[in-house]
# Entry
Amino acid sequence: YTQPSKPVAPSVNISTPVRDQSAMIEQLYKAQQDAALAELEAAYNQNVIDLDAAAGKIPGIYRAERNRAASDAAVNQRNFDEYAAESGLGSGANAQARLAMNNQLTSGLSSIAQAEADANAKIETERAKVKAEYKSAVAKAIAEGNAAKAQALYAEAVRMDEMLQQQAVQNAQLALQQAELERAL
# Structure
């Protein structure tokens, strides 16, 4: 005669793995940051191209101005020479007039050179501002991205902690139920 076996309570464990999504969050925020930085760099590069194009036009603009000033001076000199010849002005008056016209041409060319230097300085100031704005925008994007990523990682850590606590409570309840079932048997 064999004694009937005692029923045994089945062992139950609901431990399902809790997946940590931190690596995925890191990848997501890295991709977002890379995209934001690429967009900022593209805008910066376009600004630099625009400034280079503007700087490239400056010499031509002011060369034309210098040529116009020299041409106007030559026409004025020829007109004065004709006037002096018709009026019978002496060589002293003629020399004095030439000196005044040369001073006027030199002054005009100097003004044009100063305007060209000012235009180049303005371009360089704009270039420096664009670079500073780019660096500031990059730093801001990185800081905002890091803050958002930290917040998401914290939320993930809280979620993981809550899931593990919930799982521990459920396992404890099942263990208690199993112990009560075994005692009842």
In short: The radius of gyration is 43 Å. The mean pLDDT is 87. The chain is about 85% helix and 0% strand. Residues 44 and 133 are 9 Å apart (CA to CA).
